[in-house]
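User: I've been trying to design a sequence by hand for this structure and keep getting stuck. Would you show me what you'd pick, starting by listing the structure so we're on the same page?

Assistant: Good idea, let's start from the same input. This is the structure you sent:
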């Protein structure tokens, strides 16, 4: 099964992706990991992307698209893939549809995580991480027993520098202005399944599980 998972920053794509990969045996492809691997392995497209990054420039869509094609062509995607963080715009949506069909691994389902902006603000600004073990808390929905202290190892909890409403607003607006068009494009093809992500993770996953079981 070949899946795209979409949703704004803080909607739970990472959490849901981990569970989907575990239950459905597909390869998890996040754009960040993909870039790091291609650069580390010295692939031609990875080196090309690195040249832009080293120059402080954005990697062009065309280069990112080729990197995605290279990644979904690998053997570990024979039972399917879950693309997380791509496509980010309409151009990339056209590209993945074309490339995936070309190699016989067409996109079959798009999971779209929907969540109100106000809920995202609480998720992002309330997030706290343990400096020692990396455990994640939220001061609104999942606080530690003692403020600022990890329940697991007593480590100090901290807030990431980009977990602010100002930074979230930038990412959210970019998502609405660019990525939303990708969702509408796939929706016209009948591939999009909207999921209410403003619920406990188990409930969100239960809905996703039903969608994927029906598509399988």
């Amino acid at each position: 099964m070949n899946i795209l998972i979409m949703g704004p920053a803080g909607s739970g794509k990472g959490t849901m992706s981990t569970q989907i990969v575990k239950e459905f045996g597909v390869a998890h492809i996040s754009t960040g990991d993909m870039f790091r691997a291609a650069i580390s392995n010295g692939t031609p497209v990875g080196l090309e992307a690195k040249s832009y990054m080293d120059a402080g420039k954005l990697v062009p869509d065309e280069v990112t698209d080729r990197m995605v094609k290279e990644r979904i062509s690998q053997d570990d995607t024979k039972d399917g893939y879950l693309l997380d963080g791509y496509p980010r715009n309409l151009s990339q949506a056209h590209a993945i549809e074309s490339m995936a069909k070309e190699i016989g691994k067409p996109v079959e389902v798009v999971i779209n995580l929907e969540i109100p902006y106000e809920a995202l603000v609480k998720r992002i600004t309330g997030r706290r991480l343990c400096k020692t073990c990396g455990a994640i808390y939220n001061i609104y929905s999942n606080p530690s027993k003692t403020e600022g202290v990890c329940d697991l190892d007593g480590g100090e909890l901290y807030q990431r520098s980009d977990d602010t409403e100002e930074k979230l607003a930038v990412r959210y607006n970019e998502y609405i202005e660019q990525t939303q068009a990708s969702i509408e494009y796939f929706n016209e093809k009948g591939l999009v399944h909207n999921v209410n992500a403003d619920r406990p993770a188990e409930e969100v996953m239960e809905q996703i599980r039903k969608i994927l079981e029906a598509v399988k």
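That's my pick for every position. To get oriented when you compare it with your attempt: The chain has one domain: 2-115+175-215. The first strand starts at residue 2 and ends at 6.
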